[in-house]
């Protein structure tokens, strides 16, 4: 996808450029780890690069920590290097299990004091209490296996997106997939991140028990899927509601937020964003049918997609969330399917 660069004197169209090597992409993330997080998330800093993990798990490209003490193991891959998706994913599991063998004191020693240096960078050397709290929380999350794994790529093929999304849906692992495109102008390089798969969000305080998602489970129990629709996933905060014949990146969703369960329609890839104009146009129709709800079309979302969100009002019952999902499906399924089928015909 091109990038348009404009000034008061000229306009320039930039095309994505290939990285010279995986090391180049590693270098960029090392200098700018903020490329891997959303602007509303906790800030991150580098702990170590090319970190040798225990138990023969291999060499980790980058190890980051955020200001809450949560670690991120980063694996950098270029699509053209040809490593199989299964091999990449096996590494992800290996890294997560190997990191869980550490206590924070041992990890800090093995990284040359990298954990504490990064926390002081994030929280301030003159704020020792906050640094110590984050260090203790890091230790708790290590023991709980609550670290994040990030796969950073120049371009993400559909099968890798599918695999990462499936792993998040069906496990407690938190695996994030980020695509970082490179553009080159005369004397500058521009790097554009796209968060393709968010990952499972765990509680920052790993010492606290994970909340039992009674509301989400109860909503799924109350929901009788219409013909051709199935409910998928085991994530703590959402359930995907998939329509037969639709790509996995285009689906409905029950999203748990606070005490409410909100129905949504998600477009989670560049490919399915071709139907975005139709979904956006349906927002007013859905809002008119559900006047007690706040209906919003949100884009960009996760940097590359969009979602039609039906926010339930305070005090809404779970049956209300189910009824709102039925209405959302009733009003949008057919026009979205028609738009998708027309787009697919153009590809033939």
The oligomeric status of these chains comes to: single chain
The total of beta strands comes to 14
Instruction: Enumerate how many helices there are, as a single number.
Output: 9
Structural class estimated from helices and strands:
alpha+beta
Describe the structure.
The chain has helices at residues 22-31, 85-99, 104-110, 114-123, 128-144, 158-169, 214-222, 276-289, 318-347, and strands at 3-6, 11-14, 44-53, 58-66, 71-77, 148-153, 174-184, 189-197, 229-232, 238-243, 250-257, 260-267, 294-301, 305-311. It folds into two domains: 3-197, 3-Layer(aba) Sandwich (Trna Endonuclease, Chain: A, domain 1); 214-347, Yope Regulator, Chain: A, CATH 3.30.1460. The strands form three sheets. A six-stranded mixed β-sheet has the order 3-4-5-6-7-8. It has a six-stranded antiparallel β-sheet with strand order 9-10-11-12-14-13. Strands 1-2 form a two-stranded antiparallel sheet. The chain is globular. It is 36% helix and 29% strand. With 348 residues, the protein is of the alpha+beta class.
